[in-house]
TrEMBL record:
Pfam families: Acetyltransf_1. The keyword Transferase applies. GO terms for molecular function: acyltransferase activity, transferring groups other than amino-acyl groups. The keyword Glycosyltransferase does not apply. This is GNAT family N-acetyltransferase. Gene3D superfamilies: 3.40.630.30. It comes from Chitinibacter fontanus. Transmembrane segments: none annotated. InterPro entries: Acyl_CoA_acyltransferase, GNAT_dom. Coiled coil: none annotated. Residues 4-163 form the N-acetyltransferase domain. Keywords: Transferase.
Length: 163
């Protein structure tokens, strides 16, 4: 098995990212190209793709965030915060062809390590579709306040982790 490579996401990766996303999420949770491009523009240093034998098998979009209310889904034009008090892991997906290789764990750990090196002390995310069990294995716990804005994410759990 080839060693996975994690690298920053480039705009040229977005078509493959849209393919991976479509293979992983139901239609109501899909985000569009402009939203992904806006995330890249807002936080270009903390979005990563993972490749195996040169083929992108997964991605993780992250960004600084302010407050306990999660960002809106599929809203590239949303107001990005001027300051941040936490690191937000927004979207992690692994193509079905890449599953079983612990790629999601590698990406999540890479992101949390990066955030800690940048001085963040809290990470936050919304786990969808039963993914909260995966995140608990990585040290995340349910946030004490489950925000009403989570309904846009379907079955979802707001989670956090001290870094």
């Amino acid at each position: 098995m080839s060693t996975p490579v994690i690298r920053p996401i480039l705009s040229s990766d977005l078509p493959r990212i849209l393919e991976i996303q479509a293979a992983c999420y139901p239609p109501e949770l899909l985000e569009d190209h402009p939203t992904f491009q806006a995330k890249l523009s807002f936080a270009p240093d903390c979005n990563w793709i993972i490749e195996v034998t040169g083929i992108a098998q997964g991605y993780l979009f992250c960004h600084p965030w302010q407050g306990e209310t999660p960002p809106a889904l599929n809203r590239g034009e949303q107001p990005w915060p001027n300051s941040a008090d936490r690191f937000y892991l927004h979207d992690l997906a692994i193509h079905p062809d890449g599953r079983g290789q612990k790629l999601s764990t590698l990406l999540a750990q890479h992101a949390c390590d990066w955030a800690q090196q940048q001085g963040f002390t809290m990470a936050m995310l919304v786990a969808v579709g039963g993914a909260d069990s995966f995140w608990r294995k990585l040290g995340f716990s349910d946030h004490p306040r489950q925000d009403t804005s989570l309904s846009q994410y379907g079955q979802a759990v707001l989670m956090q982790k001290l870094l």
